[in-house]
């Protein structure tokens, strides 16, 4: 017994180092697996508060470019709205008569990150704004990511620039779908894999979300095909997708809640159990 | 004792704020960021207790991780260099270290540079191995280590020169 205690005292530095190193390894491994419970995230009171107060100042510097973006989006929506109202002029249908399955929230990115291999963003909306895990996040130009963790006032977003991110996406002109991943290299490009060889591809084709995952509605723009190659087995394409979004400059985003998510998940679970 | 404590607390907080709010948004050439917060570990007094240094480094790394959503990679790398620091001190300063009389303001520039370089490269290598966490991307790890290290070393040396009290 005496010897054990002596051993511990003699090697206390090494043992302490080993313990703390193992703890940090544990955190690291957790952060590499999707949606594991992790304690170390920036959606807490301290980091969220710091980022929020800094963002209050720094957002002034990008006011001009963000205004242009919003005006651009307004222009699109206006043209959509006026064109649609002219067509359906005679048979006016109140859109509130239908229950839309998607609900939208706005939020601001208070911390952006794109230089790591696993990037998380922080937004200024959280549980008190009824934001929950697995809501989709898009900007006016295209897809951004999925809500990962929320605290009371803040949330983190698993960016599409994250090597663990998997989002279902498809070609706009046909219905061939695949998985959107990222190889960790350039923040301008993501990779679309598992598109079957039979799909007719061309450079410049548009990629949209497929609406299969119950997170994003169908048709959220992702990007255009920059180049593509067949994988090693020569059955599927690996496509480099140039994103519509400039992921290095995002501020105003929309959060999408699918009200039917629970129903869809239950249905899928039932099907799996049978 | 009290003044040493307050100096290091301020240094801890300032380095974290500087790192998180400014240095992590540099993204030179898309991905190169300096990690200057390790200056806290590098400049920690040598005579003080090693256990405290290891615990403080862990806390420092964990704070950075908290801000960057990176799991535990900064904590791991910081704890490692805090543990390995005596060996590095011995290799870069030699006999002076044995007598425990180093003052970072007074040692000659060459050995200080060696010390910073060793510490930074070791820290960055562990940091990026943990971040990328895949043996097949070892080239990317080495590439990131090399470029970020150059940046970090440059900035650390500049900061130490800028904030050192001149021995008169």
Describe the structure.
The complex is a heterodimer of chains A (274) and B (168). Chain A has 274 residues and is α+β, with helices and mostly antiparallel strands. The mean pLDDT of chain A is 84. Chain A has a domain at 104-258: Thrombin, subunit H (Beta Barrel). Helix content of chain A is 30%, strand content 30%. In chain A, strand 6 and strand 7 (177-181) form a beta hairpin. Chain B is mostly helical. Chain B has one domain. In chain B, helix 3 (50-68) packs across helix 4 and helix 4 (73-93) packs antiparallel against helix 6 (109-132). Chain A binds chain B through residues 12-14, 16-17, 20-21, 23-32, 38, 40-42, 44, 46-47, 50-51, 54, 111, 113-118, 120, 122, 156, 184, 186-187, 248, and chain B through 20-21, 24, 27, 30-33, 50-51, 54-55, 58, 61-62, 65-73, 75-76, 79-80, 82-83, 130-133, 137, 140.
């Amino acid at each position: 017994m005496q010897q054990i205690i002596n051993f511990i005292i003699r090697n206390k530095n090494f043992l302490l180092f080993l313990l703390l190193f193992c703890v940090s390894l544990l955190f690291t491994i957790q952060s590499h697996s999707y949606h594991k419970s992790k304690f170390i995230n920036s959606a807490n009171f301290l980091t969220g508060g710091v980022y929020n107060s800094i963002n209050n100042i720094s957002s002034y510097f990008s006011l001009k470019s963000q205004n242009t973006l919003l005006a651009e989006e307004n222009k699109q929506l206006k043209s959509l709205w006026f064109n649609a109202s002219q067509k359906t002029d005679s048979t006016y249908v109140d859109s509130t008569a239908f229950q839309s399955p998607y609900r939208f929230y706005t939020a601001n990115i208070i911390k952006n990150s794109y230089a790591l291999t696993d990037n998380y963003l922080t937004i200024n909306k959280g549980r008190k704004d009824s934001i929950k895990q697995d809501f989709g996040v898009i900007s006016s130009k295209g897809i951004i990511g999925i809500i990962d963790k929320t605290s009371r006032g803040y949330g983190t977003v698993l960016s599409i620039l994250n090597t663990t991110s998997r989002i279902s996406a498809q070609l706009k002109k046909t219905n061939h779908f695949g998985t959107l991943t990222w190889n960790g290299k350039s923040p301008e490009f993501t990779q679309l894999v598992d598109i079957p060889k039979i799909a007719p591809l061309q450079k410049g084709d548009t990629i949209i979300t497929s609406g299969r995952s119950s997170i994003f509605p169908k048709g959220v723009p992702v990007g255009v095909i920059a180049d593509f190659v067949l994988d090693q087995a020569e059955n599927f394409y690996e496509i480099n997708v140039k994103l519509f979004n400039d992921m290095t400059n995002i501020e105003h985003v929309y959060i999408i809640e699918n009200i039917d998510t629970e129903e869809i998940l239950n249905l899928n679970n039932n099907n799996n159990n049978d | 004792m009290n003044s040493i404590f307050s100096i290091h607390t301020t240094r801890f907080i300032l380095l974290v704020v500087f790192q998180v709010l400014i240095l992590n948004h540099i993204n030179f050439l898309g991905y190169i960021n300096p990690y200057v917060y390790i200056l806290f570990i590098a400049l920690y007094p040598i005579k003080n207790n090693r256990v405290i240094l290891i615990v403080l480094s862990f806390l420092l790394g964990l704070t950075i991780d908290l801000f960057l959503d990176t799991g535990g990679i900064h904590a791991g790398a910081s704890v490692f260099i805090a543990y390995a620091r005596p060996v590095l001190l011995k290799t870069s300063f030699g006999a002076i270290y044995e007598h425990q009389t180093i003052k970072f303001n007074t040692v000659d520039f060459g050995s200080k540079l060696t010390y910073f370089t060793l510490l930074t490269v070791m820290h960055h290598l562990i940091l990026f191995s943990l971040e990328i966490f895949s043996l097949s991307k070892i080239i990317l790890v080495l590439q990131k280590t090399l470029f970020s290290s150059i940046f970090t070393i440059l900035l650390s040396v500049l900061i130490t020169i800028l904030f050192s009290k001149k021995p008169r």
